[in-house]
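Encode chain A's predicted structure.
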Amino acid sequence: MHSVLRLVSAAAALTLTASAGTVVLTFGAFQNGEAPLTYWDGGAGSDGTTGGPNYGIYFGSDALSFINESSGGGLNSMEEPSGTDAAMVFLTGTGDVMDVPAGFTTGFSFDYTAPYYTGSVTVWSGLDGGGTELASISLPTTADAGNSGCGGYDYCPYAPVGVTFSGTAQSVIFSGTQNYIIFDDITLGSSTAGGAPEPATLGLFGLGLAGLCVISRKQRKLQ
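Encoded structure for chain A:
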């Protein structure tokens, strides 16, 4: 059973887009293995990447951005839905935490790949997974590893997942087995990953407010 990341130094960057009341977080601007941290909150990633839009979104230190192997990184993946050749994983802890203090509404979605183990994502009304649970998404295993259309990479293809909910969310917890799940196209305000808006789009934290199991398929376990 192959994990999905190889920790290799390489330049990359994380980007995010906002349109029609949605915010989409992708991971093509970071360096390989960099934690986004406060990049989308007017701050910087763990390796010093700055210049991201200030959307008032920040991640815990377990969330990491990795570039795929074909682009010189360590991610055992291909055909990332965002088209950035990078995605989010976690190699320590029990998952990734995303906080949005100003809150978002309507829907939440993303793409993921997890061919070996299941996972889950939970949307909460408070920060750091506190308050009331607004929505929970179970993540079954995805298509067989090494799919013939994915160049022999184990973590491909990705599956889109989304949910609508009532109320205002301030945090999301991404859970699964360390080094065995990858996330991309994290979308706030829509149940469709990549940014298609819902009929009542998110009241997203006042726009203008002013990142798995992803070690190289050549490795059997995380080094």
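The two ends are 15 Å apart (CA to CA).
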